[in-house]
Amino acid sequence: MEWTRYRFLSLWALPAPPAAVYAELERVEDYPRWWRQVREVNRLGDTTGIVRIRSFLPYDITFTARERRRAPAAGVLEIAMTGDIEGWAGWTVTAGGPGTLARYEQVVEVRKPLLRRFAVVGRPLFRANHRLMMRAGRRGLAARLEAV
């Protein structure tokens, strides 16, 4: 097992039509308004930006996000990431029940020295930290969609 490699999958059931969910997810610079763990997004251009996140554990992760795929008709948004984490992440937005199912997938290699140093003993904590962040993100986006 590669202790610094992570694969995450989160499914968010949201109370809004897919087009509304997609529209919110593609406005990455607005994430800090509804997702408190996304501390900062600074656009460098139309398809690139620097993102800083921090969840429950006391460390920041900073990475450059570069758009890899944007397909509104398919409900797909994907980015490549370099920096403290390297890999890719993506959303797939589809109709689900009375609203939308947003599927988030992420495959990354941790590059931040502190996290690499504690990779073996910290892995369960890092995974729990990610779950807490994703739970808060779903709640924040659901509240934002209900307010619109």
Overall pLDDT, averaged? 96
Strand order of the largest sheet: 1-7-6-5-4-3-2
Total number of distinct structural domains: 1
Assign an overall shape: globular
Helix and strand arrangement:
Blueprint: E1 5-14, H1 18-26, H2 31-34, E2 38-43, E3 48-53, E4 61-71, E5 76-83, E6 85-96, E7 99-110, H3 113-117, H4 119-147
Antiparallel strand pairs: 1-7, 2-3, 3-4, 4-5, 5-6, 6-7
Characterise this structure.
The protein is an alpha+beta fold and 148 residues long. The chain has one domain: Alpha-D-Glucose-1,6-Bisphosphate, Chain A, domain 4 (2-Layer Sandwich), CATH 3.30.530. Helices cover 32% and strands 44% of the residues. It is built from four helices and seven strands. The chain has helices at residues 18-26, 31-34, 113-117, 119-147, and strands spanning 5-14, 38-43, 48-53, 61-71, 76-83, 85-96, 99-110. A seven-stranded antiparallel β-sheet has the order 1-7-6-5-4-3-2. Strand 4 and strand 5 form a beta hairpin. The protein is globular. The mean pLDDT is 96.
Q: What characteristics describe this protein?
A:
seven-stranded antiparallel beta sheet, 148 residues, globular, alpha+beta, Alpha-D-Glucose-1,6-Bisphosphate, Chain A, domain 4
Short description:
The protein has 148 residues and is of the alpha+beta class. It contains 4 helices and 7 strands; from the N terminus they run βααββββββαα. The protein has one domain: START domain (Alpha-D-Glucose-1,6-Bisphosphate, Chain A, domain 4).
